[in-house]
Each structure stands twice: as C-alpha cells, then as structure tokens.
Amino acid sequence: MAAPWFMFATGIENSYPTIKNGSARVDELEKCGHYTHWRRDFELLEELDIRYLRYGPPIHRVWLGHGRYDWSFPDETFGVLKTLDVVPIVDLCHFGVPDWIGNFQNPDFPTLFAEYASAFAQRFPWVQLYTPVNEMFICATFSAAYGWWNEQLANDTAFVTALKHIVKANVLAMAAILEIRPDAIFIQSESSEYFHADEPDAIGGAETLNSRRFLSLDLNYGRRVDSDMYQFLLDNGMTRDEYQFFLTRHLRQHCIMGNDYYVTNEHRVAPDGRTWAAGEIFGYAEITRQYYDRYRLPVMHTETNLAQGANGDEAATWLRKEWANVLRVRNSGVPIVGFTWYSLTDQVDWDTALREDNGRVNPLGLYDLDRNIRPVGKAYQQLIQRWRRVLPTQSVCLTLPIIQPSQFGDAHAVSQQETAQDLRRGTMASPTMTDHAG
C-alpha cells in the first residue's frame, strides 16, 4: 500500500530518563509492555490504517559503549516494520542516555551520539525519517533547570550546558545520517510553548520566557538568537566559538518543524517568576503560527493527547479540537504535512512527569495496555478514513519525497538519493546557500 501524502501518525512511548540521582531508570517501553507485546502493537497500526510511526530503539539497551551495540531487539522490530511497509520516524534519543554516558552535562555526548546515529543509519539504511533527539528544550529543562531527571540540576548554567550538548548532538547526528542517507528528512519534535503574564509586573518575565522557548530550535536551525538570549547563553557557559558552531551548520533544508502541543503547554507567569499551567488559551494554531513565522519550515503536529476521563469522550473531543487547529493552520497558508496522536497505547506515570515510579496507568493512548481500542482510537481511525484523500497540504506539489521501506533500492529511490547527494555537495560548497536569519 502506498504511504499517503499526509502523515497520519502515532507513536510508541519510549522515554527512558533516570531519576533518584541516576540510580533508577524509567523505561516506558517496559512499563507499557512493548518489549512483550511489540508484535501486537504493530498489528494495531494496521487496524487503524496508520502508515507512519514515531518509534525508536531503547538507547540504554542498544548502545553499550563506545562502538559497542546490541542490535538484537531493533533488528527484530525494525525488520517487521519494514515487512509491514510502515514508515518509521526514528527517535534515537528520548529523554535519556546510557549509564556509561552519565547525563547531558557530559561534553563528549554530542560526538559520541553522532557515532551512534551513524551506526544506526548504516544498520538500517532503508530508514529515511528521523527525530535524532526528541524535545530538546524539554529534555534540557526537565534535566537541568527543574531538577527532575538525569543530572537533576536546577540552575541556568546547568540548563545551558545541557541545551548546548543536546542540540549539538542533534546537529552532528543529522550530518552523520546524511552521509549515509543523503535524502534523509529530520522531523524536530519540539514542545511549542507560550507564557502569559498573570499581571503587569510579570510582563518582563513572560517576555524572557517567550524568548527562551525558542533556544533549542534557534540553535538547531542556525538562527541568531535574540540579544537577551545571547547574553543569557554567554553568561551561563556557552562560548562564542560554541555559539558560532550552530550558525555555521546549514541543515535546515532537510528539516520539518515538528510542534508538540498539550493542554499543559501554555503557562501563567507571576511577578516573582513562578509559572503554572494556564490551560488552553491560544491553542495549537496560534502558537504554531508564531513558530512558523520565526522559522518558515514545513510543519508537522508531532504530539498531542488527553486522558480519557469519566465521561469516556474527553480524549476524542480533544482529538477533534486539535484536528480543527491543524486545518486552521493549513488554511492559513502554512504547509502542514502531518498529525500525530501520541501514543499508540496508554502510558505510565506521566501524571508525575516520570518523576515518581508509581506504576499508575495514564489513559492517554489509542489503545489501553490490554490492547483494547479506546474511544479516541475509534475516532482517530474514522478521522483518517475521512480526511486521507482530502489532504496533503494545499497542493500535491508540496508533498514530501518519501521513499517507503518496500521501495528502498529500486531505481527511483536510488536516483533520489543520488540527486540529494549532488545537491548536498553543492550546498556545502556554495556560500550563497547559507542562512543567517535573525
């Protein structure tokens, strides 16, 4: 079956941060039963007629040391995905690193991670779509600003250190993958945030936070950061040479800007700097417009969900609301190429942001953990059936050059990769292709 132009997707939750000062790892693939039920999980995709899956191997189980890998589980799982002709959007780092790396304060992480990304791409050359590091801003914030995960630090210097290492790892990984798969496409799954001043004395603080929310993508796309943020970065440990590194890497032409949006993504800000959830005020369409105006890249809605509540229809109602926002984004002229309900099955302990190991099931999935479909799963199945032929974006000319797993190696795929390689060489050789937006 041909992969549809518009990417209706789901994901299999594969977070694996450490907590308790690094002594315990929260492995969502294990908690949600994927290691046991992965074949059934892939069958669910066929039931829903979903052809795109945000998915990645457990980095802490695969990446055993410098140049040492255990590919046994990915060989099985990705082998079946290829047989099913499901297009994976491969998530290589989702909120954690192997124990031997330590955490995101490790300055060796970016270079080592690029080697891991290269090894994966060599092992699975048919994979084209990647999210090298998931939610870079959230990962740095929760690990080094809030003190929740991994290094469990809570200061600006630790945050900037984590952020620069995480984004550099993402950039180096993209470059490494392109050496092997020159037509690779990178979908940055990043949280889209907004901070609302709760009263006039909070306006300055809200403005600072609304600049800070862009840092990961500014650095990733080589866009000059705002002047206040430049000062913030340098005051907290980023050197001018480190900053210049990001401005001289020109990979945005290979990227789709993935925006994640939950009801918790908007915040109220108090005069003393405290923040708390604001609920949905602007919504996905308005905030995505802000990000698009800044980066001018194709967009994908890469994550959303809501818990199924007492009435049983809360998640399905949220799905319809988010889909209306996607259509609003599309109709306003933004090239939006995909939508994702995250995740395929329920999750565990996200009600405490994985900070506590309670084993509490969060009813957020299209299916429950017994693999029974939820009302939102039926609603998403119906939505896909009804809208698949109406989209992709505004024009078939804007469709993505995606090669399905079953097409890898055929004449068209080889020609596309050769063309991509020629274009990449030309881009790297020509200074006129650089982008210094700011």
TrEMBL record:
Q: Which Gene3D superfamilies match?
A: Glycosidases (3.20.20.80)
What is the protein name stated in its UniProt record? Family 1 glycosylhydrolase
A single GO molecular function, which one?
A: hydrolase activity, hydrolyzing O-glycosyl compounds
Please provide the Gene Ontology terms (biological process) for this protein. carbohydrate metabolic process
Keywords assigned:
Hydrolase
Compositional bias annotation for Polar residues: 429-438
Task: Give the span(s) annotated as Disordered.
Answer: 416-438
